[in-house]
Predict the structure of Amidohydrolase.
Amino acid sequence: MNKAAFLTALAGTLVFASAPPALAETFDAAAAVDAQYERTARVARQLWEWSEVGYQETRSSELLQAELAANGFAVTSGVADIPTAFVAEYGSGGPVIAILGEFDALPGISQSDAPRRETVAGRHAGHACGHNLFGAGSLTAAIAIRQWLETTGTPGRIRFYGTPAEEGGSGKVYMTRAGLFDDADFAIHWHADDENSAAAKTSLANRSAKFRFHGRSAHAAGAPEQGRSALDGVEAMNMMVNMMREHTTMDARIHYVITEGGTAPNVIPDFAEVFYYVRHSDPAEVEAMWKRLEAAAEGAAMGTGTRVEWEVIHGNNPLLVNQALARMMDAKLRQVGGVEYTAQERAWAEELASSLGEAARPLDVAEQIQPYETSLGYGSTDVGDVSWATPTVGVRTATWVPGTAAHSWQSAAASGTTIGYKGAQVAAKAMTLAAIELFTNPDLRQQARAEFEAARGENYEYRSLLGDRDPPLDFRK
């Protein structure tokens, strides 16, 4: 689906059927989530303390599995050939509704829960994208939905997917490729943010790889003619790719980091590595740019007398937005409302906001629900691949101080506080209400499925942007 087709919003409004009165009166979804606040906070804080990076989230995965097993879920571990991936299910018959749960941290972020920059000795990763909250909030929603299924006797299954390595590892892509979502009727996810929104926002497709150059070492002063610098290969590639930016379309995003380039200036490095990301709203454009990236690598190696090889690490398809589900989720989020700060939380937020400069926004934004709209987002997520396997809907809540950017020390700090936990509770309530709506509203299910099939097209076949490679379990080591 191209960008123009995506940005053509569906006209009209949707009417949502309510749950049968007998069911609606027997269960208070918001109260069920509120009753679990202590668990949400405890799990979120523990995941935050561990801050385990992609495919290394052993303790984080085990904690979530243990909580689900203790609440009546049947847990299957190590799915899709990923030790930290799992699926946990409760119920029988009826629709199968998936709740996605992430729990990986970002490398290179060290931060306490203070409202000022404060690194922590020995901590080399942090939850600067709020995945500790993601996992904990989704856990709470899954348990609340399980309670609703049990209380009302409604046929159906709630299935929690423990999805590792979203940050550059594409854990959900391998799970999608393994067919784990093939029998799921719908998928629900959420994400940490600095505002509350259920807007229909898609994402960019992306692909990444580590380009490894091999040269020949020699004394940089005594015998430079005998050496061939692998770092020269990396820098030559980077120069050509930077010139390529002038000749790409508007949605293109290319970024890189040199992960290894030698250790001493007087030793010509025989190995160097650069890690590249390429993004675009159209997967075909990602693949087209990728061919040019590979050509630049080969040209750089040829010109510097080095050798290059590369390993694709991850690749994500763009989110396939489902308007029927998105409008429903927007209604549920408005029913729940935003995040309200205590006086202590407001003082903490004000101190942190002073570090945001011009990006700072009024703190009251955390209480508001943003207008519903259809737009193109410039991030990337492996939820995109899930959304092409089954109709998918998401929500974002104000877990961070308004104006905070993801992947920052400020987001890492807030993700370890009650501000973050409250945002996770808002998300859990919205997801719980959305799942109940899907279980009890066959008209909505039919409408969402019809939109999904039409968007994918009659002859759709799933194609992963990372090919047939095995999960890169050591890419963060």
